[in-house]
């Protein structure tokens, strides 16, 4: 039961019993993420004062220029999750391949794998717009004591045991689920403690905000073009308001609080869209569903997609249930050539 002003530490201990295989490791894992988020938050807040802005000079496996803060956040989370005998492997947007983490005495007996987008919304770092971190946790499926393999990471999203994000915005928050609803905690920077500020978060059933990069409009599938037209029509509770921050975490967070839909569709340029299934779409979809929202690729539930590659991309439709259902309807109609 969530109590107002409860600290994150207290909440984790109090709710540990809810974890299917609770032996304290998942609690310790969430605690490690809490710690790493503080380290990154500290650096984000100093952006502009210290040499943390701009490109780091390398590109990641997706061909994107790594920002200094991408690299910093990646190292901070990997370092904090290592040597705590919880995690046996980490996959990250900023690492070409997964990293094997050994347990006590170099044994491969840690239970969980973590997939992470260390810094989400990289294009906003240098312009002081809110950014985030996204994480997803699974129990390994290969036997304990054997080296972790790609199989442990390529699990469908419906097998996640925990997922969450940190938003570094006007305040810094951790929002996460372990399959028993979604709770949000705000950092009190003066004392470095997270407090339960948003218990039991719920997506409003519908809303009036749509978030999509309309700059790509000409390349969008017909169904998305039709849905955007629908959002802009002077009818019923429309037109909706267009809001697009360009940081998935921030756009999602706003839409979960106010009601709305975020769409990053496939385009003629990017047939699979831009967002990565394993460390962006799966964790956000799990949170959305736990908060009564919905997430699909326009046709299929994101959490039921069988992953095939570590950095694969998927089209992403996510937010208030009725809004996602309406967008999916336009996609189906367009696919049948019944476009408006
Ligand atoms: O600039 P675009 O093409 O609209 O893309 C913005 C989207 O890309 C992202 O920045 C991708 O995430 P990263 O910054 O982690 O690579 C999302 O946060 C955001 O929603
Ligand atoms: Mg991202
Ligand atoms: Mg990123």
UniProtKB/TrEMBL annotation:
Gene3D superfamilies: 3.40.190.80, Fructose-1,6-Bisphosphatase, subunit A, domain 1. It catalyses: beta-D-fructose 1,6-bisphosphate + H2O = beta-D-fructose 6-phosphate + phosphate. Mg(2+) 1 binds at residues 93, 117, 119. Binds 2 magnesium ions per subunit. Residues 204-331 form the Fructose-1-6-bisphosphatase class 1 C-terminal domain. One of its GO terms (biological process) is fructose 1,6-bisphosphate metabolic process. Residues 7-199 form the Fructose-1-6-bisphosphatase class I N-terminal domain. It holds the Pfam family FBPase. Substrate binds at residues 120-123, 213, 244, 274. Mg(2+) 2 binds at residues 117, 120, 280. Its cofactor is Mg(2+). GO terms for molecular function: fructose 1,6-bisphosphate 1-phosphatase activity; magnesium ion binding. GO terms for cellular component: cytosol. It comes from the Bacteria. NCBIfam families: PRK09293.1-1, PRK09293.1-3. PANTHER family: FRUCTOSE-1,6-BISPHOSPHATASE-RELATED, SEDOHEPTULOSE-1,7-BISPHOSPHATASE, CHLOROPLASTIC. Homotetramer. This is Fructose-1,6-bisphosphatase class 1.
């Amino acid at each position: 039961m969530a109590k107002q002003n409860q600290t994150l530490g207290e909440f984790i201990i109090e709710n540990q019993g809810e974890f299917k295989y609770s032996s304290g490791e998942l609690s310790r894992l969430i605690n490690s993420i809490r710690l790493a988020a503080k380290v990154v938050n500290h650096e984000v807040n100093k952006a502009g004062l210290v040499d943390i802005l701009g490109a780091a000079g390398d590109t990641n496996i997706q061909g994107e220029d790594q920002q200094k803060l991408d690299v910093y956040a990646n190292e901070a989370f990997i370092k904090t999750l290592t040597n705590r005998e919880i995690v046996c492997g980490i996959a990250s947007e900023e690492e070409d391949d997964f990293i094997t983490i050994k347990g006590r005495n170099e044994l491969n007996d840690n239970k969980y794998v973590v997939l992470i987008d260390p810094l989400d919304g990289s294009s906003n770092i240098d312009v002081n717009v809110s950014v985030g971190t996204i994480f997803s946790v699974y129990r390994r499926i290969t036997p304990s004591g054997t080296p972790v393999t790609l199989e442990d990471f390529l699990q469908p999203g419906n097998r996640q045991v925990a997922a969450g994000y940190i938003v570094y915005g006007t305040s810094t928050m951790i929002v996460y689920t372990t399959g028993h609803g979604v709770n949000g905690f705000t950092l009190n920077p003066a004392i470095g403690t997270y407090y339960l500020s948003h218990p039991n978060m719920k997506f409003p059933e519908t809303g009036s905000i749509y978030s999509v990069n309309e700059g790509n409009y000409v390349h969008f599938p017909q169904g998305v073009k039709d849905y955007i037209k629908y959002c802009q029509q002077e009818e019923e509770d429309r037109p909706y308001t267009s809001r697009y921050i360009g940081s998935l975490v921030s756009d999602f967070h706003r839409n979960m609080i106010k009601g709305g839909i975020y769409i990053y569709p496939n385009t003629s340029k990017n047939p699979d869209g831009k967002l990565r299934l394993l460390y962006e779409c799966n964790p956000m979809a799990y949170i959305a569903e736990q908060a009564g929202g919905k997430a699909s690729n326009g046709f299929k539930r994101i959490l039921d997609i069988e992953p095939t590659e570590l950095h694969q991309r998927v089209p992403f439709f996510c937010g208030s249930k009725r809004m996602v259902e309406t967008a999916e309807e336009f996609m189906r109609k367009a696919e049948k050539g019944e476009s408006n």
